[in-house]
Amino acid sequence: MTDPLSEPDALRAAAETMRQVRERCVWSQRITHRDLVPYLIEEAHELIDAVERDDRIEMREELGDLLWQVLFHAAITAQSPSDPFDIDDVARGLTEKMVRRHPHVFGDAVATTPDEVLVHWNAAKAAEKRERRSVLDGVPAGMPALARAHKLLGRASSVVEPAEGASAQVGQPASEAELGDALLALVAAAREQGWDAERALRERLRLLESEVRAAEQAG
Questions:
Q1: CATH number of the CATH domain containing 35
Q2: Does residue 93 lie in a domain region?
Q3: Which residue range is the domain that position 188 belongs to?
Q4: What number of other Cβ atoms are within 10 A of residue 47's Cβ?
Q5: Is a pLDDT exceeding 50 seen at residue 183?
Q6: Which candidate, 33, 48, 149, places its Cα nearest to that of 83?
Q7: Number of structural domains, the chain?
Q8: pLDDT tens digits, one per residue of 77-132
Q9: Rounded CA gap, 109 and 17, in Å?
Q10: NTP pyrophosphohydrolase MazG-like domain: which residues (predicted)?
Q11: Cα dist from 30 to 13, 17, 217, whole Å
Q12: Which one-letter DSSP state was computed for residue 82?
């Protein structure tokens, strides 16, 4: 049995650790891609929390936990009898894609501003996704609603004007439907300002949590 800690390449050691865990741990052997989804979501949110709190120690740990999820999924697919691929295939595909999407870095294209970089990125992405029939294709249905609204508004802006009510003044909603209009309007306003509605709500909730905990301690 290979000792992963003796491997000089840290990423290779992590992949080898995952391979042995998948093959020899009775719990891990039974895990499927679907089983891992809740852990993937949880680890991603824990990393987001560490980033927004600027906790460098937690960031390093949570990045590792998120990497473990990637390695776990790749270890499962490596055992597929019909269409196997491993972490090397994943890494190779990622590298090829990033080279294609950065022609100003790896090719002769020129980009001197962030906007010009996005032009190259979007052109390369469009070429890769020729099978898509709508600008909305590829927006995950499982995204948090505020984040998905932000994404959909950005995609939709290239085709239609903002949805009716999306840019209206936000008043007191009289129904759940009006509440939906008001939330969409707030997301549209945030997007116009370059703000992240999902992050804004998280930050406000974090402040609320601090206020509640302070009140509990004071009481």
A1: 1.10.287.1080
A2: no
A3: 139-218
A4: 18
A5: yes
A6: 33
A7: 2
A8: 999 999 999 999 999 999 999 999 999 999 999 999 999 999 999 899 888 888 87
A9: 40
A10: 32-106
A11: 23, 17, 44
A12: S
DSSP, residue by residue, 114-171: HHHHHHHHHHHHHHHTTT--STTTT--TTS-HHHHHHHHHHHHTTTSPPPTTTTSPP-
Give the Cα separation of 9 and 90 in Å (integer): 17
- For 13-53, what is each residue's pLDDT tens digit? 999 999 999 999 999 999 999 999 999 999 999 999 999 99
Q: Give percent helix, percent strand, percent coil of the chain, each to the nearest 5.
A: 70, 0, 30
- Asked if residue 78 and residue 8 are part of one domain, the reply reads yes
In one-letter notation, the amino acid at residue 103 is P
DSSP states of 32-59 as a string?
-HHHHHHHHHHHHHHHHHHHHTT-HHHH
Choosing from 85, 106, 122, the residue where a domain stops is: 85
CB-based burial label for 180 (10 Å; 0-12, 13-18, 19+)? middle
What is the C-alpha to C-alpha distance for residues 115 and 54, in angstroms, rounded to an integer?
A: 27
How far apart CA 63 and CA 112 sit, in angstroms, is: 31
* Whole-prediction pTM: 0.74
Higher per-residue pLDDT: 125 or 10? 10
Mean pLDDT of the chain: 87
**Residue labelled with tokens 């987001």:** 48
